Amino acid sequence: MAKCNENNSSQHDYSFNFWVGCKKFSEGCQNCYMFVAQSTIPYGRPAEVRRCNPSTWKKPITWQRKAAKAGESKSVFACSYSDFFMEEADEWRDDAWSLIRATPNLIWRLTSKRTHLMADRLPKDWGSGYPNVWLGTTVELKKYMYRLDQLRQIPCVLRWAELSPVLEDLLPELADHIDGIGWVNASGETGCNRIDPRPFDLQWGRNIRDMCKEKDIPFRFSHVAGRARYPDRHLDGVIYNEIPPLMPKSENKPGGCVIVTGA
Fold first, then answer.
1. Best label site of 24, 38, 136, 140, fewest CB within 10 Å?
2. Mean pLDDT of 218-240
């Protein structure tokens, strides 16, 4: 079993991997940070999908206890080193759903490029969606807009679009596929301090930002393209950090977002 470490980022309280390893699926995967990171460590096997060890699976229970005691919710970004809905993880997914059900104070953010597999891999008691699960998908090129359409067919408390890495101007086509999406997170490509990222035009980010403003969708800009692991987050001098509340009042109608400005 793989040992998987906890990671934090500014948009999530926790990051968690049920399993690690993935198969490159589309152009956005070309310089994936997981493949870069795994290829630089001894015995790294990025293309081999492995379940994380039992001690890792216990961590969310600890987070749940802390959150419940404090009377609050915490966000968890899942499978940053894999894909939650990939076929290679089918044998472990029921255990993952059980852990998610056992941690109601943790809001699980599950994203996948494999939207065509989602419906058949939801738990039997999914109903209109678990209250503590957000479902998302990644779109890097216009030709993958269909992922948003497939995601829209899945009942869920909140659906989100991870436009990362943006490899071309996604507008105006994106506007015709964004209905039913409750959060948009966009970024250029990171080089993880090891590779040169593919180009990102700031105008592409502006177009996404403006569309979100017009449609009243919370918008977060993660970063421009850069060789650094964490490139500049500013877009026209502003840090856009709009994140829906962890317990939306109604499906895909979040409120209470915040914009942090900076020089």
1. 24
2. 88
